[in-house]
Amino acid sequence: MDEEFTDENYTVRDDMPDGTEGEHEHRHEHHQQVLARLARIKGHVRAIKRMVENDTSCPDVLTQIAAVRSALNSVGRVILEDHLQSCMVDAVEKDDYKRALKDLKNSLDKFIG
Amino acid sequence: MDEEFTDENYTVRDDMPDGTEGEHEHRHEHHQQVLARLARIKGHVRAIKRMVENDTSCPDVLTQIAAVRSALNSVGRVILEDHLQSCMVDAVEKDDYKRALKDLKNSLDKFIG
User: Fold this and answer.
1) Angle at Cα A97 formed by Cα A92 and Cα A103, nearest 5°?
2) What is the CATH classification number for the domain harbouring B67?
3) Is residue A10 assigned to a domain?
4) What angle in degrees, to the nearest 10, is found between the helix axes of A31-53 and A58-82?
5) Is the distance from CB of A97 to CB of B29 less than 8 angstroms?
6) Rounded alpha-carbon distances, angstroms, from residue B39 to A21, A59, B45
7) B20-54 as b/e: b if 16+ CB within 10 A
8) With an 8 Å Cβ cutoff, is A73 touching chain B?
């Protein structure tokens, strides 16, 4: 997945799932770790914005963007690991694995690219 | 670049360049657009953290992480375009292109991966 985001089409979508329906019935092993990592990633993006505001050299900014991207890949892998260990096992036990596999495939298509 | 970030080694480094030395002598064409995109990316990461807090399904979370990654790639390309159009031209005119090319190469190694 490498679609072009423009100022016009890149928005945090209003219809982004917010999970208020409580789709999970269980907690993941790495739940707190994932939240901590996402908090740090948010802080890292804020720091990069400050670098741009302060006219830091472009190569330094690009290097930090690459670091955030790696951190996103890393937290994604942790989420995926938790998902396979808990959600997928749940889905199989509830005989709901076909839908679960379809959702996972669609998501992996985007995550792996 | 796909190094593993762990809780131990992933921090927003204290020695991250903050550009307070004013390394740029010029403004980029897309300066404001880059700042706006980074602000939206930060908001997007915050929204993903909220999804995890609210136990949104893992495939939905992974999909949004992939979207942020694409947005980072996109803003990186804009920064790179500005850099080539202004910083690199400046460096050549000031006969400082060898250092500029070396910095750019090191950064691209990380950004392109």
Assistant:
1) 135
2) 1.20.58.1000
3) no
4) 170
5) no
6) 28, 20, 10
7) eeeebeeebebbeebeebbebbbebbbbbbbbbee
8) yes
Structural domain includes residue A87 = yes
Taking the C-alpha atoms of residue B69 and residue A71, their distance in angstroms, rounded to an integer, is 10
Which has the closest alpha carbon to B63: A46, A3, A32?
A3
Q: Which two tokens stand for residue A38?
A: 């996402």
Q: Is the distance from CB of A63 to CB of B110 less than 8 angstroms?
A: yes
Is the CB of B31 less than 8 angstroms away from the CB of A16?
A: no
Residue B87, domain member (yes or no): yes
Convert the pLDDT of each residue in A7-49 to its tens digit.
444 556 555 655 444 457 667 999 999 999 999 999 999 999 9
Round to whole Å and give the CA distance between A1 and B66.
8
d(CA B15, CA B10): 13
pTM attached to this predicted model? 0.80
B34-67 pLDDT, tens digit each: 999 999 999 999 999 999 999 999 999 999 999 9
Task: List the domain range (segments joined by +) for residue A108.
Answer: 30-112
**How many separate domains does chain A show?**
1
Contact in structure between B47 and B38 (CB atoms under 8 Å): no
Whether A76 and B65 lie within 8 Å, measured CB to CB: yes
Q: Is B101 on the interface with A (CB under 8 A)?
A: no
Structural domain contains residue A24: no
